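1st attempt posting a full record on here, be nice pls
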Amino acid sequence: MTEQPEKPSSFQQIRRIKIVLSLSSSYLAAGIIGGLLTGSLALISESGHMLADVGGLALTLFAINYTRKPATPQRTYGFYRIEILASLVNSLVMIFLSVYILYEGFRRIFEPPEIQSYPMIIVASIGLIMNLVGMRLLGSISSVRGGGGHSHWFHQEDHHEAQQEDSLNIKAAYFEVLSDTLGSAGVIAAGIIILTTKFYLADPVISIGIALFILPRTWSIMKKAIHILMEGSPPNISHEKIKNAILQIKGVTGVFELHIWTITSGMHALSAHVVVIDTSRSQIILQDINSVLERTFKITHATIQIETYHS
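the predicted structure (as tokens):
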């Protein structure tokens, strides 16, 4: 396994994630203190989302560093699945948190407490600025990755195609910061409404709205993570199209036991049994199959077994 020197941009990407983590941690402390002092559920729920942010970003950094470890005889694919596990944990935390906010929000609709709006607006405004900076930094990571950086800073040349897909882990972290940005804007709106109209129901109503916005997006990421861990076929790769493409190669008369799965974001693998009549052309056929898989379907990890007969 030949290792390539790490690209300098990877250090910059990790540094940006660390900056976002520092900003999120600072706002988390401010949000908890502000929420307790003002009694605002919206601010407390925003702090809860920031807590998930901090944990998610910490997991992201852990996953990035861990996936760079070399493969071992016990883990022959390396540690790339850590990224998927981290995104699953992030999603579960966000779902449980959103459910709790929904429960607390509906409870407060019937008993809306008095809320101090001025500090609520100030804390949320600080959070909005920090979240916008965090979104910009995480967004730039995605653009760098899509434009020329490796999805996991893979060391191997055959991981080149991974740059075409964003890391599920980075995407989960980006959605968390996006939800916090909207949450901060919602808290500011609630504070202004309470300040001008004394309509205290604005606080739980906006909190419920934030939770309802987050749930479907988090659920979508969690389903993708579970699908990968269950070794389901990549959604952007058609099982039938791959089978037909292999069958169209000259000399191939059958394909069976075709399996396609995702190791981690942007890194797909395939195994299949291929029936050929003329075994003297086996090596040429193998080269043609690998060429089609790599060129058409971006699959660089393929294990093909040549067979002479299949019922």
